[in-house]
Recover the amino acids of this structure.
C-alpha cells in the first residue's frame, strides 16, 4: 500500500503536469491566467489556479467549465473543506478528499452533459455566424467585381484608343456574332420539327427566314465593317436565297450605320494635316451614303467643283483582324455542324482581298486604269479623281447625279428602259472580263449608278463607283476563259473539258453548272433567259447532295475564277432586279469571241488573220442566232398550247 507521502507526491506531479499541459496548449498573455508548475502547498492555491485556467479556456472548448465560480460553488455545496487537497495534517483527510472528489467528479459529468447541450447551441450559433460571414464575403466580392467593371468601362470610355478598349470591342463583336449564329441555328432547328408535307410549313418557313434575316441585319448594323460587306454579298444572292433575306439585307448596300462628323474629321486631320473646312468651301456633315468600309459626304472645293468625299471609318483597320478571326470561327462552327460545308479558306481569301480594298490610293489607281480601258465605250463613265484631297483613307471624286442601277421606278422616272440599262451594264462587265482582263469584282447595286447619257438623253449611261476590288487576269488565262465560255454557251462538251483543264478545273461538268446556273447535263442549257422555280429547286437539291464536291472544287479553283464568279453573280442579281430583260449568255458569249479575236488584232494586219476572224465570227453568230430562234419559237409554241388548253404543266 502506497504511503501518504508517495501518494501526495504522485498527485502533485500529476497536477503539475496537467497544469503545464494547459499552459503549453495555449500560452496566454495575461499574467492572471498563467499556471505555475510548482507543488501546491494547499488546496486554495490549486483551486485558484485551476479555475483561472478553466476560465481562460472557455472560448475554445465548450466541454470545459466556463465559469470558475461554478466549480468553487460546486465544491462548497458538497462540504469540501478548504484543505481537502493535499493537507498534511492527517491521513484521514485523504479519504475524505477522495470521497468528495468522487462526488465532485459525478456532478462534473452532469455539468459536462448540460454544457454539451449548450455547446451544440453554440455550434449552431457559430454556423450561423459563419454563414453570415460567407454571405458578407460574397457580397464584398460581388461589389468588388462590379466596381472593377465600372472602372474598366470608364477607362475604355475615356481612352477609346487604348489596348483595353480594343480587346473589349473584339470580345463584344465576337459574342454578338456567335449569339446571332446560335439564334439562327435554333430557328432552323425549330422549323425542322415541322414536316415538309405539313400545310403550315411554307408559312412557318417564311417566318423563320424573315426572323433570321432580321437577326443577321442587326448584327451587321451593330458590328459594321466586314459584317456589312458580308451582308451586302448575301443580299446580292437573289438568284439563290429567298426574298426574305435579300430584301431585308439590301439596305446594307448604301445605308449602313454612319459615324458622326467629329469621328471622321479626325481622319482628315491625321491623313492630310487639317480638318475638312480647310480644304473645302462647303462640306455637308451628314453623309449621303454609308457602306461597309466608308461613308460618303457631299462637298464643294474652293474652285466650286462638286465632289463626293469618301472617308474610311476610323476604327476599321483596328477591328479588321479580329473580324477576320471571328469569321474563321463562324465558318469552323458551320463546318462542325455540317461536315460537307468546309469553306474555312474563304476567310483567308477575304482577308487578302480586303487588305487592298482598304487602301484608297490603290482604289484611285484602279479607277484611272479602268477609265483608260473603257475610254472608247461611251456608255460608261468613271468619276474623276481629285488626288490633292485624297489619301489612303480618303478618296475625293467627281460628284455624280443619278440613281441606283436596280431602282426600277427611278429608272423609269428618268425616261429610260430597264432592258437598255441591263444590256449596257452587262456589256461593260463583259468587256472588262473578256477584252481587257481587268475585272471589277464588287459590282453590287450600291456601287453602280445610272444617269441619262449626256449625248443621248433617251439612252442610259452607266457610272461605275468603288474601284477598290479588282483582279487582273494574265493574257493566257483570259484567252482560255474566253474559249471556255464560248463553248459553254454552244454546249461543245469536248472543248469545255479541254479549256477547263487548262484553267485548272478537273470536274468540268460541276464547274459549268456553277458558271451557267443551269444543269449542264441538259442540252443547250446556256441560252435560256430565265431560270424557272422548278429548275432552281432541282439545282439547289443537287447542290446540297454534292456539297462536298462543290467545296473541293471551289477550294482548288484558281482565285481568278473565283472572283469572276463573284462578278457574274452580282451582275446576275442586278439583271434579276430589273426583271431579267436580256439574255446574259448570248451577250457574254459574243464578247468572249471578241476576246479571242483581240489577240489576232494585236498581231498586226494580215489578210489571213482577217479572213479567219470573219469566218469564225460568222459561224459563231449563225449558231448563236439559230439557238436563240429555236428557244424563241419554243416559247411561242408553249404559250399558244397553254391558251388552247392543249398543254397542262400540272400534268407533266
Amino acid at each position: 500500500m502506497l504511503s501518504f507521502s508517495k501518494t501526495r507526491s504522485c498527485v502533485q506531479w500529476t497536477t503539475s503536469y496537467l497544469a503545464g499541459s494547459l499552459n503549453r496548449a495555449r500560452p496566454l498573455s495575461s499574467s492572471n491566467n498563467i499556471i505555475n508548475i510548482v507543488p501546491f502547498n494547499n488546496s486554495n492555491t490549486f483551486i485558484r489556479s485551476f479555475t483561472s485556467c478553466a476560465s481562460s479556456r472557455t472560448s475554445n472548448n465548450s466541454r470545459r467549465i466556463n465559469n470558475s465560480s461554478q466549480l468553487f460553488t460546486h465544491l462548497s455545496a458538497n462540504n469540501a473543506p478548504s484543505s481537502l487537497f493535499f493537507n498534511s495534517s492527517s491521513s484521514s483527510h485523504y479519504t475524505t478528499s477522495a470521497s468528495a472528489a468522487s462526488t465532485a467528479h459525478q456532478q462534473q459529468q452532469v455539468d459536462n452533459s448540460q454544457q454539451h447541450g449548450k455547446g451544440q447551441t453554440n455550434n449552431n450559433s457559430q454556423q450561423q455566424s459563419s454563414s453570415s460571414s460567407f454571405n458578407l464575403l460574397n457580397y464584398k466580392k460581388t461589389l468588388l467585381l462590379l466596381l472593377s467593371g465600372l472602372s474598366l468601362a470608364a477607362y475604355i470610355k475615356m481612352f477609346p484608343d487604348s489596348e483595353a478598349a480594343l480587346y473589349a470591342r473584339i470580345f463584344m463583336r465576337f459574342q454578338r456574332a456567335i449569339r446571332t449564329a446560335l439564334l439562327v441555328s435554333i430557328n432552323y432547328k425549330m422549323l425542322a420539327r415541322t414536316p415538309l408535307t405539313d400545310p403550315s410549313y411554307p408559312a412557318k418557313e417564311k417566318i423563320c427566314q424573315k426572323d433570321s434575316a432580321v437577326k443577321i441585319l442587326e448584327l451587321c448594323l451593330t458590328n459594321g465593317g466586314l459584317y456589312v460587306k458580308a451582308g451586302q454579298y448575301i443580299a446580292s444572292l437573289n438568284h439563290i436565297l429567298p426574298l426574305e433575306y435579300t430584301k431585308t439585307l439590301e439596305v446594307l448596300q448604301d445605308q449602313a450605320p454612319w459615324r458622326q462628323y467629329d469621328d471622321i474629321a479626325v481622319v482628315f486631320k491625321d491623313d492630310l494635316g487639317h480638318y475638312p473646312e480647310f480644304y473645302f468651301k462647303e462640306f455637308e456633315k451628314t453623309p449621303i451614303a454609308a457602306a461597309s468600309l466608308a461613308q460618303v459626304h457631299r462637298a464643294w472645293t474652293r474652285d466650286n467643283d462638286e465632289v463626293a468625299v469618301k472617308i474610311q471609318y476610323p476604327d476599321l483597320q483596328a477591328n479588321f483582324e479580329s473580324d477576320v478571326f471571328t469569321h474563321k470561327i463562324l465558318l469552323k462552327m458551320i463546318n462542325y455542324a455540317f461536315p460537307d460545308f468546309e469553306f474555312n479558306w474563304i476567310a483567308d481569301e477575304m482577308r487578302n482581298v480586303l487588305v487592298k480594298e482598304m487602301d484608297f490610293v490603290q482604289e484611285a489607281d484602279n479607277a484611272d486604269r479602268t477609265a483608260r480601258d473603257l475610254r472608247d465605250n461611251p456608255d460608261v463613265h468613271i468619276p474623276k479623281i481629285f488626288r490633292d484631297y485624297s489619301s489612303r483613307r480618303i478618296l475625293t471624286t467627281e460628284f455624280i447625279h443619278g440613281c441606283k442601277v436596280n431602282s426600277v421606278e427611278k429608272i423609269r422616272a428618268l425616261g429610260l428602259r430597264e432592258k437598255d440599262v441591263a444590256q449596257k451594264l452587262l456589256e461593260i462587265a463583259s468587256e472588262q472580263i473578256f477584252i481587257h482582263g481587268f475585272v471589277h469584282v464588287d459590282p453590287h447595286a450600291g456601287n453602280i449608278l445610272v444617269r441619262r447619257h449626256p449625248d443621248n438623253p433617251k439612252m442610259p449611261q452607266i457610272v461605275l463607283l468603288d474601284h477598290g476590288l479588282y483582279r487582273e487576269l494574265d493574257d493566257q488565262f483570259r484567252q482560255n476563259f474566253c474559249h471556255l465560255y464560248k463553248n459553254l454557251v454552244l454546249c461543245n462538251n469536248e472543248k469545255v473539258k479541254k479549256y477547263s483543264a487548262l484553267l485548272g478545273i478537273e470536274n468540268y461538268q460541276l464547274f459549268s453548272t456553277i458558271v451557267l446556273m443551269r444543269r449542264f447535263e441538259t442540252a443547250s442549257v446556256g441560252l435560256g433567259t430565265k431560270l424557272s422555280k422548278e429548275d432552281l429547286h432541282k439545282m439547289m437539291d443537287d447542290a446540297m447532295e454534292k456539297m462536298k464536291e462543290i467545296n473541293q472544287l471551289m477550294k482548288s479553283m484558281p482565285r481568278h475564277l473565283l472572283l469572276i464568279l463573284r462578278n457574274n453573280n452580282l451582275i446576275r442579281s442586278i439583271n434579276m432586279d430589273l426583271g431579267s430583260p436580256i439574255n446574259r449568255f448570248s451577250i457574254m458569249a459574243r464578247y468572249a469571241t471578241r476576246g479571242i479575236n483581240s489577240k489576232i488584232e494585236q498581231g498586226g494586219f494580215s489578210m489571213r488573220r482577217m479572213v479567219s476572224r470573219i469566218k469564225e465570227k460568222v459561224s459563231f453568230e449563225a449558231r448563236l442566232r439559230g439557238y436563240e430562234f429555236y428557244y424563241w419559237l419554243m416559247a411561242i409554241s408553249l404559250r399558244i398550247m397553254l391558251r388552247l388548253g392543249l398543254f397542262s404543266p400540272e400534268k407533266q
Notes: The longest strand covers residues 294-301.
